Amino acid sequence: MRSFRRGRAAIAAAALLVTGATVLTVATAPSMAAGCTGYVGLTFDDGPTAGNTTTLLNTLKANGVRATLFNIGQNAQNNPSLVQAEKAAGMWIGNHSWTHPHLTQLSQSQINSEVSQTQQVLQQLTGQAPKLFRPPYGETNSTLKSVEASYGLTEIIWDVDSQDWNNASVDQIVQAASRLQAGQIILMHDWPANTIAAIPRIVSGLSSRGLCAGMISPTTGRAVAPDGGTPTNPPTSGPPTNPPTSAPPTNPPTSAPPTNPPTSAPPTNPSGGCTATYHVINSWTGGFQAQVDVTSSTTITGWTVRLTLAAGQTISSLWGGVNTGTSGQVSVRNASYNGTVGPGGSTNFGFVANGNSSPAPSGLTCTPA
Predict the structure, then answer these.
(1) Cα separation, 210 vs 171, whole angstroms
(2) Contact between residue 346 and residue 295 where contact means Cβ atoms under 8 Å apart
(3) What is the per-residue burial (b if ≥16 Cβ within 10 Å, else e) of 100-123?
(4) Residue 3: strand, helix, or coil
(5) What angle do CA 342, 344, 345 make, to 5 degrees?
(6) pLDDT at site 9
(7) Which residues of the chain have pLDDT under 70?
(8) pTM for the full predicted model
(9) Is the CB of residue 144 less than 8 Å from the CB of residue 230?
């Protein structure tokens, strides 16, 4: 935060991009439209990175698939030839902020800087401004959404978390991908070796279920055919990840408004060390996206949040933490990158769940490590 045996190539056209002593084979992968009953979005965050992105591109091409790559702006600036290789390989390129910060902890002007710098460098390198934005850590709020809207960006979270950032094995990454349904999106990353090793098996598993890799529609935020068409078997539900189309408010609220009250639970602080506050970010028929904010009155180096889901609610993906609970009893331990919280500071984790967003989960507690 890396070499693999290439499988049988399915490459429609090839070219060579030479940069210094590095030679990258790039190609436009076939759309795999024939025989597809639906499409899914394969996404890879945090690139481009020297020593990783080339292998990722070659593996995707060898397996005849295209993917959406959410690039970090400063990585793109430092590796311009790799961004151009991504474009030449037929990949879709999205904005993943300039430095990968916790955007929900920044001011609107700071968020704007993170988004605008990345838009600018990616447009310079590819000739086209990104249309998709993935917030680092999946953390979002209305301030960020208003900035996204001002640049015409559609916010893309995910339906399935591969957990490759959490050292998931190849088998675990493949198993996560097996949960994908038509229209859905999986979170993966540019840098884990296990992710690249899992790609051939992911593609084979999808194909066996009539699913193909597609593009993410800037209009709906869902996976569609590579030419932008609608899938043959579109999903009946999913998180509405596209940003608002109206102009950003002059003084936006600090959190997204509830969409299906009651959507929040009162903050709890039984231990005196940390406080957990739950609120719903988005809801749709059959599912919702929620976020839990963790604040602390003293310095803590780790935390665990516990809550009980309401009847019919089940978590389908979670980020910013590790769920060690079972069934409706959720026990989320901090991820490695967000365990430390200073006095008056905060962090959060989020999840996508099946079921109705109301009532809110009960028994919300936060315990410091």
Answers:
(1) 21
(2) yes
(3) bebbbebeeeebbbbbbbbbebbe
(4) coil
(5) 55
(6) 35
(7) 1-34, 228-272, 326-327, 337
(8) 0.59
(9) no
Half-sphere exposure of 178 (CA within 13 A, CB side): 11
Token representation of residue 88: 């030449």
> What's the rounded Cα separation, in Å, for the pair 346 and 338?
9
Torsion angles phi and psi, residue 51, rounded to 5: 90, -15
For residue 36, give both structure tokens: 């597809």
Inter-axis angle of helices 53-62 and 193-208, to 10 degrees?
A: 20
| Residue keyed to tokens 């929900």 | 104
Residue 251 burial (CB count, 10 A): 7
Residue 102 is among the residues annotated as catalytic for this protein: no
Instruction: Please identify which of the residues 45, 159, 164, 190 carries the catalytic annotation.
Output: 45
Q: What is the pLDDT of residues 79-100, one digit of tens each?
A: 999 999 999 999 999 999 999 9
Residue 52: left if φ>0, alpha if ψ -120 to 50, beta else—which one? alpha
pLDDT tens column, 197-208? 999 999 999 999
* Cα–Cα distance list, 134 to 34, 139, 300 (Å): 29, 9, 28
Percent helix, percent strand, percent coil in the chain, to nearest 5 = 25, 30, 45
89, 184, 145, 70 alpha-carbon torsion, rounded to 10°: -20
241: Cα separation from own chain's centroid: 11
The catalytic position among 96, 100, 189, 279 is 189
Tokens of 279: 């609120």
Rounded distance between C-alpha atoms, residue 257 and residue 255, angstroms:
6
The token duo for 78 is: 């430092």
In the chain, what are the domains?
26-224 (3.20.20.370), 264-368 (2.60.40.290)
Give strand pairing partners of 92. Answer: 68
Task: Please indicate whether residue 100 is annotated as part of the active site.
Answer: no
200: amino acid identity, one letter: P
DSSP, collapsed to helix, strand or coil, labels residue 346 as: strand
Amino acid at 96: H
Angle (CA) 244-246-252 rounded to 5° is 80
